[in-house]
Amino acid sequence: MNNQEVLEILRKESNEFRHLEEEHRTLDAKLSALEGKNFLTAEDELEIKAMKKQKLIRKDRMAEMIREFKKPETINRGG
Fold first, then answer.
1. What is the H or E stretch that residue 63 is in?
2. Which of 70, 69, 52, 53 lies closest to 16, judged by CA?
3. Which residues, at least 6 apart from 19, have a Cβ–Cβ distance to it below 8 Å?
4. pTM of the model
């Protein structure tokens, strides 16, 4: 099973995965908007760092869920 197939299954079957993916996209959009400013205040810089950390936490959890799904015992149990 390839990564795209796993992603499709997790998107259909896991509320947590869909929620993490949506939060990741939302953070990405907010980061892009903030980083696109001509001048960043100290608060902006702190907010950027915090958002990047939150985005990474979500990405790491999604990657963990993909790894768990691909484990042989998960596949043998039918997902």
1. helix 42-70
2. 69
3. none
4. 0.82
